[in-house]
């Protein structure tokens, strides 16, 4: 803990610090020593072939109980995440845009969002949001994502198309205004127009005080959301970190030159 | 034998029973008595009662108020907050007796009758005799036979041809007594051609004694009639509720029923629906929320006797702690009942390894051009949905609550009174949170739901 405090004093802009992170699922080790640092104001892209552990990393960060962390640490905004429940991590400002958003019949988007917003406010010692302010907030964020008003009056993700689900994830992100957003293949299932809208939304939400991790297979999304740093994840480890030009290089040459140099 | 004491009681007090009722009731007693003597109460030896031993409920000292000794109760006091809204129609049954001091300043449309069954049987014997104990066939059911032996009063809702009753009516059943009691209640709902009516019935217990209640309901929906019949049980744990609902539907009629067991002791609800005219539709909902050692058994029988009818059943159970749920759904599609559409769904949620669910779909189909289906699932809360909610900052306990309430949504959505639906959502939420005022207070009436 001493080290961390010391570190924070030196670098106030540090938001996420992952050290030597190992995680297993069903007895199989998927993450084999991840080190990653994200500062406020940054956008990081994590790329890599299928099965390299990208989605596992996202799940572990937000505390999915299916994964067990066996070694290492995750410090977010100066706090140890591994001791925290998923809901507390969310209320600390972590947000995951799910690769496969879950359909929840019977829970309306409105009730879901009101509960989420109010839980966040309660955590910060604030009063619940007024009905009026909440509706205003909903409308504002819905318009930001170009979402149909009908979608938000329906049950959470129920009967939504793939694109609508992804857009709904970013809508929730806009509603909750997190410090760190992890977008897990948010581009998959989006046509080019939807991709543009979603990316524009993400860019509008980006400020010098928050950060974004974009997990993607393709350069395409990175044309719209420009990363500061690009990492390549392979077999549970980050094997390469570089500037945005790395994504272009990967698009041209694939991963093979990195995996078998 | 459990039955003997009731047989003796009936023979001893026959005259008093008759004297405190009316001819309409009395003329049915002998035949019902003979049937009961033969078949008795159902026990768990019968396939249809495998998980509910009805006879056992009667195997105790129970009083019957056969002499109609007045029960001191003012339902307007018992129910803290009545509906001051002048446009509502609220009626009460105190145990089996119609409460004559109900204040309903507004009058119902001409020809509509809502009130005591004794009165109705005397004022309109032609109609009463046509239906009473005709739709509820007691030859096969010992509890219905028993009820017909002892029934002395009840509630009638009669709507003449082409009359539409816009405002929903509410009947509140109050159980009241100083000693353990057997209550035998009777309901009759008649909607003549193209009539429309909506009725909500709430069950409440005021006193913490044991009650064994039999309730026989007869519903007739004539050609083109629309009937909504909703029941909300909020009884104490000491109540055994044995309800049998018999419905007959004619051409183009539509019947929507939903019975919601919000709080109870031991409940058996029988449903017998007969679709006797083409294009008749029946929508049948059932929801049970149980914990502790509560027991809810819904038995539904739907008879498609003619072509082109639709039935749609949805029964859901949310079982916690050591509770038990039972569902049996029988659908009979008779020979020649072509183009039948019959759907049955039973979905159950169990949050405890000590809870039990017994479910049995039974389809008997003797026509070859029909659409029939049934679905049955029993499971736990969806872990992925739970995590999704948590990942947005909603604490686990609260997320579970949201999902449990969500589970009940589609049954509640069957209710066709908007304000009642909203009220039910609110009550279900409170029920899961353990905040429900259980007895002595009508949770529907304490808000202006109409």
What do you see in this structure?
The complex is a heterodimer of chains A (261) and B (450). With 261 residues, chain A is of the alpha/beta class. Helices cover 41% and strands 28% of the residues of chain A. Chain A starts with a helix and ends with a helix. Chain B contains 10 helices and 19 strands. Chain B has helices at 2-19, 23-39, 54-58, 75-78, 117-123, 125-131, 142-150, 383-390, 396-412, 418-432, and strands at residues 89-94, 97-98, 113-116, 154-159, 169-175, 181-191, 196-205, 211-221, 226-234, 239-249, 254-263, 266-275, 281-290, 295-304, 310-319, 324-333, 341-350, 356-365, 371-379. In chain B, the strands form 2 sheets. In chain B, strands 2-1-5-7-9-11-13-15-17-19 form a 10-stranded mixed beta sheet, covered by helices on one side. Chain B starts with a helix and ends in an 18-residue tail after the last helix.
